[in-house]
Every structure is written in C-alpha cells, then in structure tokens.
Write a structure and sequence with these properties.
Length: 372
C-alpha cells in the first residue's frame, strides 16, 4: 500500500467515525481520529457530544489501553485541525505532543477563530510534521453546518422545499399533497435529525398541521425543537405538538397579550416585526440565545421568501419529483430564489427514487478547499 492510499483510507475512516455522532455534537463539529503506528491502526476515537472528550485524546487513550508504546512512529489522522484552546475540554495539541505523535494529517483547518491555524502552527513549532488537506472536501461537507456557523456568526439556516415537476408545492386549493416518494421522505427525516430546530410559518401550521418529526429515521441525532413564526399569535393550542420538546412560538410585541392562552403549550418569545415581516437577524440572535444552533425552515413559501430576501440562509434543499405535474399552487418563493441562486454554489445533486435533490450553498457559508 503506498503512503498516499494509506492516508486516504485512514482519513476516510476518521470521517466515518466522526459521522457516528451525526446530529449529536451541536454546537461542536463531528470529529473522528485514527492513530497508526508503522502503518497499522492502533487507536480510534470520535467526539460524541459537546462537553465530552475530543476525538484525538480518545484515539490516543485507546492506543494506550492496548499498551502501544509511543516510541514507534505514531501518525494521527483527524478530519479537523486539532484544537489548541481550552474550551469545555483541554487542548488536543497538548495530548498529541505528550504522546508523542510524529506526524499529523488533518483534513482541514478549524474555522473556529480560537483555533484557525494556530493548532497546526503549534504542532509545527514542536517539530511535528503536519499535512493539511487530505479528504478536505468530504470533511468540509460533513461539517458544513459548523463551518457556516463560524463563518457567518449566527445559527445555521437551511431552507427545504418539495416541488412537483411543474414547480408546485400544493394543490390548487392549497391542500397538502404528497409530492415526493418514500426514499426522499426518509432522506428528509434523516436530515431533520441533524438539526436543533425545525421552523414553519403559522399559515403552514394552520393548513397542513405538519408533524415535523423524524419518525422515518431511527439512527442517531435528535428530535428537533419545533418553531413557529406566528406574528399575530393565531396558533391554537390544539394545533401544537404534545409530544417532544415544548414548541417555540415567535410573535410580534403587540400580540404578546394573547400569549397567556398558549403559555401552557408553548414557549413564546417576541421579535421585532414591521407589520409584514419579522427581523430575521433578530430571530437568529434569539435562536442562538436559546442554544438552537441550526434550523431547518420547511416553509411555507412566504417564510422561505422572507429568509431569502433577508439573505439569512446557508443552504437550500430542493426536492423535486421528476414526473408528477401537479398543476397546483406554485412556490411563491421562486422569484426570490432565482435572485439568490445566481451566486449560490450547487454542492450536491442526488437521485432519490423518482425524485431529485439539489442542494445549494450560500457563497458566504462555504469552506473553499485549500483555504489556509
Ligand atoms: C478537536 N477535536 O474532537 C473537536 C474539536 O468546548 P470544547 O472544548 O469541546 O471545544 C469546542 C471547539 O473545539 C469547537 O468549537 C471546535 O473548534 C473544536 N472541536 N476540536 O481538536 C474534536 N470536537
Ligand atoms: Zn480538541
């Protein structure tokens, strides 16, 4: 096995380990580490949750538990630059230097401003060989939520919509229709498990009464908190979900007097509202305060358009059925999307049964491979 192939394989393994904690590390990234000695894997680890140990010390501890001696050329593979700061846990760089590891292969730098290249610099100062960039694309994709959040300094916002082949989202009378097939629906449920919150506008709540859960996916991750944008507090208690975390409703200041009727069912928070739209930057700050670091916006069209017009979005996910012409209500956010799409970067096209998923990223949210 050439050393290049070994590096690629070990990095792939690190990414695979990292992804085991899908949906569970927020606000932290998913990180996996693989330790090798003379070309053999001697330790592995991954970060399980914020507050828990980081991947690198776990891989080192796994090797120690197997009585691996530090002298024989240790290489550490990790899908994110090792940290050099003290957060909830001590710096990984110190554990790496203590081992001592001779060579570190990191897929990408850590966009967290407390690290941002300093972890790599400290290792190099201590004469550790460090290479950055192996598996970078996969690593950046795995942690795209973390990357965007660090970049834009606010919770991650993804917009999701399901469209028929002729660009409609509902029947002509507004009634909900099944547009995408089972494969796409299961995919969307796994997607939800990766988010801290799911958000809809009150019109969608009133009309569709969506469950907004992840019942079709039983892997790791969370049951996201359900959030409703409801300026005039029109929601009725019986529309709100009884199981799972308490729903969160955002309303305008003027509507707060109606809050009492719903207080048993929901947490109610006010937001600046100009008579037409909420201030979505203020919304992002509130979500951050409530430790909801990522939100999936599932509609309706007016809600999508508001996020697009404000530029408060990081990813757009378009699920589109390839054959079903619904001849119903068009997606009113299409114009806003056409404008934003001009600078967006298409990062994925996937076939899901009879549907296609296209994913676009906001230009300010993406990690550019090769960034140093
Ligand atoms: C690593 N390895 O496994 C992870 C890293 O509060 P803390 O101590 O958990 O630090 C969180 C920050 O550390 C997080 O924002 C990110 O920059 C980095 N995550 N770094 O070396 C890991 N999870
Ligand atoms: Zn660390």
């Amino acid at each position: 096995m050439t050393s290049l192939t070994m590096d690629d394989e070990c990095m792939r393994r690190a990414v695979e380990l990292a992804a085991r904690a899908y949906g569970e590390t927020s606000p932290n990234p998913m990180v996996g580490a693989v330790l090798t000695q003379n070309g053999r894997i001697v330790g592995e680890g991954f970060h399980r949750a914020a507050g828990e140990p980081h991947a690198e010390p776990l891989a080192l501890a796994a090797a120690r538990a197997r009585a691996v001696q530090g002298r024989g050329r240790l290489t550490l593979y990790v899908n994110l630059e090792p940290c050099c700061h003290t957060g909830r846990t001590p710096p990984c760089v110190d554990a790496i230097l203590a081992a001592p590891v001779e060579r570190v292969v990191a897929a990408m730098l850590d966009p967290n401003p407390h690290v941002a290249g300093r972890g790599v610099a400290r290792l190099r100062q201590q004469r550790v060989r460090v290479e950055v960039g192996c598996g970078e694309r996969q690593a950046a994709e795995l942690n795209h939520v973390f990357v965007a959040r660090q970049r834009r300094g606010r919770p991650f916002v993804a917009l999701k919509v399901a469209l028929s082949a002729d660009g409609c989202i509902a029947a002509r009378d507004g009634a909900r229709v099944k547009i995408t097939g089972d494969v796409a629906r299961r995919h969307a449920h796994r997607l939800r498990a990766g988010y801290d919150a799911i958000l809809v506008g009150v019109e969608t709540l009133a009309r569709d009464r969506p469950l907004l859960d992840r019942r079709l996916y039983d892997g790791p991750g969370r049951a996201p908190r359900r959030v409703v944008l409801d300026p005039h507090l029109r929601s009725r208690a019986e529309w709100l979900w009884r199981h799972g975390a308490r729903p969160l409703l955002f309303c305008a200041e003027e509507s707060q007097r109606k809050a009492r009727a719903l207080e048993a069912e929901a947490e109610i928070v006010t937001l600046p509202y100009d008579g037409t739209r909420f201030d979505l930057h203020a919304l992002a700050r509130e979500l951050e305060r409530l430790q909801l670091w990522s939100v999936l916006v599932e509609g309706g069209a007016r809600t999508h358009a508001a996020f697009l017009d404000a530029g408060v979005w990081d990813r757009m996910l378009l699920y589109r059925n390839r054959s079903y012409a619904l001849q119903g209500l068009e997606w009113h956010a299409a114009d806003a999307w056409r404008r934003e799409r001009q600078n967006a970067k298409r990062v994925e096209v996937t076939t899901l049964g009879g549907d296609t998923l296209e994913v676009f990223a906001h230009p300010e949210s993406v990690w550019l491979p090769g960034e140093r």
